Structure formats: C-alpha cells, structure tokens
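Worked example 4.2. Below are the chains of a multi-component assembly; read each line carefully before continuing.
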Amino acid sequence: MDYFLTDEQKMMIDLARKIAREKIKPVREHYDEKEEFPWPLVEEMAKADLCGVYIPQEYGGFGAGVMGLVLVIEELCKVDGGIALALAATALGTFPILIAANEEQKKKYLPEIAAGKKLAAFGLTEPEAGSDATAMRSHAKKEGDHYILNGTKCFITNAGEADVYTVFAKTNPDRGARGISCFILEKGMPGFEFGKKEKKMGIRASVTRELIFNNCKVPKENLIGKEGHGLIIAQGTLDASRPGVAAQALGIAAGALEEAVDYARTRVQYGQPIASFQGIQHMLADMATEVEAARCLIYQTAKMMDANPGKRTTKESAMSKLYASEVAVRVTTNAVQIFGGYGYIREYPVEKMMRDAKITTLYEGTSQIQKNEIALSLIKESAGKK
Amino acid sequence: MSNQIKVIQDKCIGCALCVKSCPFGAIVLVDRPEHPKKLKLAVIDLHKCTFCGACMEACKKFGAIELIKEEPINLDIDPSHYRGIWVYAEQRHGEISPVVFELLNEGGRLAKKLDVPLSAILIGSNIESKAQTLIQHGADKVYVYDHPIFVEFLDDPYSDILAHLLEQEKPEIVLMGATNIGRSFASRVAAKIRTGLTADCTALDVDLSNRNLMQTRPAFGGNIMATILTPRHRPQMATVRHKVFKPSQKDESRKGEIVKKPFDAEKLINRTNFLQFIKDTSAKVNLADADIIVSGGRGLGKPEGFRIIEELAEAIGGAVGSSRAAVDSGWIPYSHQVGQTGRTVSPKIYFACGISGQIQHLVGMGSSDVIVAINKDPHCPMMKVATYAIEGDLYDIVPWIIKEIKKQNS
Amino acid sequence: MNVIVCIKQVPNTTNVQIDSTTGTLKREGVESIINPFDEYAIEEAVRIKERTNGKVTVLTMGPPQAESALREAIARGVDNAVLVSDRAFAGADTWATSYTIAQAIRTIAEYDLIICGKQATDGDTAQVGPGVAEMLDIPHVAYVKKIEEIKPNYMKVERMMEDGYDIIEMPLPALITVVKEINTPRLPSLRGMMNSKKAQILQLTAEKIKAEKDNIGLTGSPTQVMKVFSPPPRQGGMKIDGSPEEVAETLVSKLKGSQLV
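Applying the procedure described above to all three chains together yields the following structure tokens:
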C-alpha cells in the first residue's frame, strides 16, 4: 500500500533496511543464542544517525518524530525484533525528557542520546506494581539539594547497558497517583545498582534487569517537571511510545509474512509449491491483510501525534499497540504453521519470530490494559458530549 | 566522423534478440503505438554502448542494426617493424612463477604459427642462472636484467626497464601471467607505451592474415566471453590466467641465446621502496597454484568445521579455500576466499563442502576440471554444476573420504 | 590530506539469475551499484580524511546515470563528486579510460592520494588503476590490504601477494588499489543521505578535461572487441548415492580413475 511517504521517510526506511539486511541478519542467531547485548550493532545504528530520528534537530536529532521512529523500528524488526529494542527502549526512556524536561536537562541529555553515544531506559514497573503503577513502593525523599531514592524496579529493558534512566518514585506517598515524580538517573550514581539479568522466552538480544536504589542521592536538578507530575509524564510517555512497540510487532509480523510467502513459493509437496494450495493461500491472505491493517493504524496514529504535539492520543496509541501485537502473535504462529516441522527448528527464522512476538502483547501495558485504556477513552468521550 | 550505431525502424520487429545479446545492457525495447502491428522497437543507449557489434550479430536475420565504425586513425606504427613473441618470466624470491612455463608453451605454439622466435624477459637479482631454465622450456632468446635494484618486484623500475626494451626491440606480442604482479605491472607498461592490453585471457590464437592476436577472456565473472584484438598498436599485450595452458616440457638439449642489455640503474624511475616481505604461514599450499582445493562454506555451520576441511586438504595434498559466507562469519581469513571478491582459481579438483554455489562463488572456480559438491540441498546451484554431486551431511561424508584416501595412499 | 577515489557503477550481480537456455545473465531489472571493490576505496578515503582533516573527492567516468553512484558515495562520507561523462567517451577500453580519468584528475585538483578498488566486477581487468598512475606519472601500489602509515608526502602500505604480503613505502602523491581485506565499509548515514541529495556534482566533458580526440572513446582505444559470446554452460555431472562409506569409495575410485589423485 502506498502511504505517500516523504523522500526523507523513504530514505530512513532504506537505511534501516540496509542495516537490518547487511549487518543484523548475519548475526541475529548469534545474539539470540548467546543472549548478548548487541553493542556493535548499536554502533552501526549510531553511525547511520538512526538513534536520533525522533529527537528534534535542535538537540542533535533528525527531527522525524514518532513517525520516523515507527518506520525505522518496523524495518529493523522485520529482521530481528530483539536487537532493534536497544533503540526502541531508549526512545521509551527518552520520551519523559522530550515531553516534560526543562531546556537545561534537554541540552544535557538529548544530544548524546541522539548521537547514539548513550542509551536510555525507562523505570516504572515494580514487582508489586505492574499494570497498576500507583502501587509502586519506590520513594524519593528530599534532603537539601538532593532526593534520596530507595526501592526496586523490575523488567527494565536496557538496564545496565544504558547510561540515562528516567525513573519514577513516590515523593508524597499520601497523595497516591499525584504523589509520583520522575527523575533522571545516571549509571554510576552512588547507591544505584543493577539486579539479576532475566532469562526470557524471546527478544534475547535485549537485556532485562532490575534497577536497585539504595539511598541513591539524586541532585534536585534531575527532577523532571514538578513534584507529583510523574504519573502524567508516564502516561504521556506511554502514549508516545506505544506506537513504537506496535511498530516492533508490525515489523516482526511483516518479516514472518515475507518468510512464509517465500517458503510457500519454494517448498514443493505433492509435486507443486505449497503456495498453490488454497489452504495455504487463505492463511497468507489473512496474514497479509492483518499486517496491512496494523500498519495503517500505526502510521495514522504516529502522523496524528506528530501533527498535534502535546495532544493526548491515549486511545489511538492503545489501539495501535493492541491490534499490532495481537496480529504479530497470530501471524508469526501461522508462519511457523506454514513452515511445518521446519518452522519449529531453530535453523529457520520463524520460530524466533514467534518467540519475539509474544512480548509485544505484554510490555508497556498488556493487551487487557490497552483495552481498558480504549474503553475508558470511549466512556470519557461519550460523557464529554453530554 | 565518430562511431555511429542505429536501429533501422522499418526492419526492427521488436524481437528482443539484440536486447539479450548486449553485454552492456544498453538496449531496451520501447512501445511503438503508431506501428500498424504495435510491434516494439529496440532503442540503443549510446552512453552505455561500446560499439562491440554483438547486437548486429544477433540481428543478422533482420539486419535492423547498422554500425558504422569510425575510420581508424593512422598511428605512427608500421606493424611489419614488430616481430617475435615475448614472455615475461615473472619470478618471485628468485623462483620462476609456474605460469611462465605455461606461457612458454602457448607462446611457442603461436611463435611457430607466425614463424618467429620466442623470447623471454627475466628481471631480478642473482637471477641469471634461471635463464637456462627458460631456454630449456622453449625460449629461443632470454633478455636478462640482473641487478640488485630488481631484487623485489616494484612497479616503477620494472615497468621502466621493460617499456624501454619493448620500444627498442619491438616484439609483436607480449604475454604475461595474470598474477598480482603481472596485472599491476603490465597495466603500467601498456599505459607507458600506448598499446592495448587484454587482461586475464583464457584462450589465444593468431590471425595469420594480419598477425593479430585473438585474445579471449571472460567478463562479468565468466558469464560472457569476449574476443579482443589490438589491431592498430604493437606490441599486443595480454595477461594470461594461470593453469589455463599446460606447461612446456623441459628439454635439456635446447640451445638459446642469452642477451644482457646494458642499462643505467641510477636512471631508472624508482620512487617506491621495498621494506619487507611477510610470508603467509597459515596456508600450507598456495591457493593460486594448487591442483586440488578443498573449500568449506556456510554449511560447515561453525568455525571448527574448517578442521575437517583442513584434514581432507592435507590427506589429498590440496589447499584450503572458502566461500565468502565463511570469511564474513569470521571462520577463516580472507586470503582463503574463492570467488568474485576473492581469488579466481582453476584447480584440477575443487571440493565444495557445504557451499551452495552463489553466482559470485561459481565465477571464481567454475573453470575447475572436476568439481565435487557435498551438500544437504540437492537443488542448490553447486550440485547442478558439480562433476560429482553428493547429497548429504558433509560431517558424515567427508571423514569417510579422508579415510578412503588414506587407505589408497598407504 | 586530500584524497581522490575513482569508482565505477556496475550491474549488481548479487541476485542475478542465469538464463538456463542461453546461459547468459538475465539483465532485466538488474540494478546498478557501486563496484563492490570501490566501496573499500571510499571507506579508506573517508577514514584518511577523518584522521587527517582533508577532503575526499569521488570521481567516476560513465553515463549520466552514474550520478547515483556518486551520490551514494557522498552519503558514505565523501565531500565532492565529479562525473566525467561525454558521448565521445563511449567504447573506451582500459587505456582510453585511464587517459580520460587522468585528464579529469589533472583538471580538478590538487591531491595527495588516489584510491581505486582493485578491479571492477563487470570488466575484471584491474588495469585502470595502474594505468591512471602511469598517465599521471605518479607511483602506485596495487592490491593494498593495509595502510600502515600515512603522513604528508609519505605512506607505507602492505601489498597482498599470492604467498604473503610485501611492505612498501613511497612518497605522495601516489595511487593505490585496494582489496577487500583493508576495511569494512560503513553504511550511509541519514545526514550523509540528506547531503547527497543536495550535493552539486561537477560535470566534466571531453572538452573541459582537454582530452585529445585520438585518445578517448572507441577511437582512442588500442583494443577492440571482435566478438562477444556466451560460454557453453557447464554440464552437470553425476550424482553419487549410497551410504557415506560407499559414496567415499565411489568418489575416490572415480578421481583415481581419472588420475587426478
């Protein structure tokens, strides 16, 4: 389908495709098997200026907005859904700064992130506070020029590898949702440690660890926005980043579809390519239609966000992520089905795609949470009209 | 008048024969809505056209392509002043390169046809004793430049002395090996003396009517062949691929003349300075010279896979090669790579173990006498070109081949 | 340090299919790319620039379409681009090409170093690099696998040979042709791609480079193509079946039978 992309956007796709095919494809099995963090590939993305596509030009980025990020993530994830996460999770960790940080903070952190010299991570989830962020126990107590941070975050993508962390903690536990604040932490701050590395089903080239704060001293200049505005910042961040997760899901699905079509064309059974069987054809047709529908939803949401900075897009972001991630799970499962027994063998790429796809229905809000968000928006909209 | 080529619109039926024949992709078919039968028309992109005439040949039946070649300019050369065939006797570290004996054989055949003597040029340091070897292998005359300045190959002094000699002695044909040295050196000499040079020839012949050397060489990695002439310049220079021609037999009774021309080493152009030679100790057998090559590819699955390749190579007395995939995965150094971006080889036997046979690999080894392919995929290109195709896991099969060879050897 | 890189646009043979009936390349829809060896030349030039603060100029001789190859080189970090293009150049062999490129280089600039890929994948001659050096009367080293040292008026390189490598030093300006082993070319960057879109490309014609008519194009070429033909496709051989043990036995006896082993 023609999305009437600009020359600039086409260029980004071209470049991401080159990196995916020439640099990532030959080593994707290695990183999946060894569960290693793909630093050499992050460097490739940095050299190609991909790390800053969504960051405004005045901070050293490329200024291509959420749409730029979505296009790049999709293209990279067609080949590998885990490696691109170094970039996607950095965007997640960077959005709080883009959305709510002051000029000084932006100038301090954004250029190095845009240049790919530093990665970022986002610290919201806690063992007892998954979908319900307000249940978080991490707290920050102000003492003179500093906040003293205590608590533990879990399932943090890029943890240990990133240099910049946007972390949420309660500054006023009595105020519930309005008592949460957002801070910028840097790796190496005294009292800031990393916990164990999780062993995951998929996206194994990505690292997931705990953040542990033990009387961690954070300068008061590192508070983003005002005290108590944390949850609003987190919600705005998730609005902006969910299309990115959706793009990851879309990329994985599109990659699996491509593999499945190729395989069906060349795999011969009963004397003919299996693509000539209607059973296979209908599967492929469903997969392709769903992938294209997901793409439409994501691109349109991203364009809407870029065109109206500051406007909430909770509903559309949630729809994009909900749909694309569920499509990714279905499409990759069917790709394995089309490959038959070979699909289950690790030598072929689709079993990995199936493993990688599942995470997209879970993180940055499960599919069920997305549905809650969508329904809540509907109810609010309806109530607003009356 | 400049070169002209055109399609005669009335004769062209849009059959596309010319499009397929063009080695440079310079012809496309366009729609001709005004044509009564809506036939297509061939259009030649003059920027891409080299006026080679391949399309004219293809269009013989219709005669729809007309080529008018520019009148050759009369250069200040009288071909009758040029006589004799020369072979450059490349040496490396005092040893004559094996390709030289092949050149002496083929050069000798052409010399007989043209009824001229065959000469060799030997340049080096402490090298004079080798002149006799060249005579025994077919040279009638050997020009020797033996001087410390020539101890290692450097393009400057070597090309300076050879260019001078060619201008003085005026041979009609000069053959050199298409080795790293030969290809670099010959290019410089040909540029200096303003004559034609054809690279990497695989077949040679002479046209007795005009004493032109017909030089056939592969282009596009061997997918097309071209026969090339140097009609208006002398000498006609060619570099020739190693192992295409058989080496000449040694005849100890042969007599010949050794010529030592005086020269002033001080006056030679000599801008580069040789510092050191570092021998490649990893390869027991030099790929370019090997009669048998055992190559491994992606199908090995892991770097350790090359152990079994090395083992087979050692048992059979061959060199170790590899596909690009294995080099890019870091399993083996680049110096072992066979193919378009690696080395071109033509051994007597080429073992392709776990190599699917991408076009880039095939062009580097397709002229091997015998190809043995071992692959899990019976439909891959390598299995189709192989002399002996063995379907199966190389890890199951290769150890048995090693065992069998060892049995035969003992 | 100012570096000139000479490149050529060639058909991409990576995914090329061979027509099984005629045995020729299927050319329809074959895209044009930068000659793979020239990518190493571009990368090496850009690295030298980054170390020594100079400019890299990329130059190609070819049809107007070759401009896309120049733009891609700019996206990979090259500063200036020169397209040497004229219908009078058509049909040039390696001698006439070397002459034309040398004339163009004389026309454009001061330089310290010229880098070429070791050969182009379409012609496979490896002759133009050394030819250009001779025409410009500068030293050259072919098959360079590493630049050990480069400073004003001096460079030290490793030349790949069949049996190892030679270390050679020379004064600048000079020309080198490079092999794959020298580096890993970077991909273009987004900024590079933006620059490449806007970049002005210097166009040079036969007149502008003061080329003598007798030295260019088909007229100036000492060699002429007499005919072009497809080699007979290689005949496939036989399949050897059986257990690994049987297969090995059959194979070795076949090879022995033809007295190859």
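Take a moment to check your reading of the output against the notes. The interface with chain C takes residues 7-8, 11-12, 14-15, 18-19, 22-23, 44, 47-50, 53, 62 of chain A (CB under 8 Å). Chain A has a mean pLDDT of 95.
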